[in-house]
From TrEMBL:
Organism: Intrasporangium oryzae NRRL B-24470
Keyword Membrane: yes
Compositional bias segments (type: Polar residues): 64-79
Membrane spanning residue stretches: 86-105
An annotated GO cellular component: plasma membrane
Protein name per UniProt: Membrane protein
Pfam families: DUF881
Lineage per the UniProt record: Bacteria, Bacillati, Actinomycetota, Actinomycetes, Micrococcales
Amino acid sequence: MVSEVDRASDDPSDDAGIPSSDPTETTTDNLTDNLTEDATEDATEDATEDATEDATEDMTDTTPSRGRTDGSSGVTPATSRRRATWGVLVPLVTAGAGLMFAMSFQAAQGSDLRADRDLPALIIAGDARVAEKVQRLDALQKEVDGLSAASGPTDARIAQLTQRAKELAPEAATTTAKGPGVEVTLNDAQRSADSLPNGYTADDIVVHQQDVQGVVNALWASGATAMMIQDQRVISTSAVRCVGNTLILQGRVYAPPYRIKAIGDVDRMRAGLDADPTVAIYRQWVDAVGLGYEVRSNDKFEFPAYSGSVDLQHATPIG
């Protein structure tokens, strides 16, 4: 049998020296449990907060920082306004530049002031105006002559000037002219450019300015005393100009054939035409491509007075 004392000695509390039912032991256990739970909760909360902050920072770091002024957003209100402004300005500037480029290109190409189809009408209208002014000038000249004749008997100075004007009138071509002479006709070749031999062009089958001038100069050099081209009286300073195959003479335009009439010694003028080098070259083209050339004599020409200006504008008399 085992005694009570033996059983008591077998209890662990007896070895520790602390009775199992001591109130201090219970209080210590409670404090330990509370501290452990508090520490565990605090550690859990701290770990959770740290993990949350780390994850938030990682996510925030992946956002581009361009244009940031605070931690709230990557784009500021000022940046948004600038982008909106550029979005409006860029299309406007592009459209303006394109418009200016188109206008410059059109201006560089140039434009016709008049369409080509209007040129014939303009030439005809201009020719009619010139003819009207010539008629008006003739009427005024006759009026001046009448007044001068009426004042002559009473004014010695006017009488002297009138007599001097009559003496110079034939040389100045301001009076009518009559007498025998020659008529030279120049004309374009009556053929197409396609029918020309090799080496010739359409420019070779039309009458040019130098051809008309050559005939006129040859006649003056051969002693012509009066001359007409087409229906106009000309003088030694009259300009003969051609544009294409048209003749411009004293503001009026003519098409071929061109007729030059001269009063003077017929035989001398014919010989002068045959000897003139410019006319000789033209006659070679007559044989080559068929240009028109004809000389006829006339026993009695009658030319009207020259109605243009006799003043020299680009030359000075010698002496």
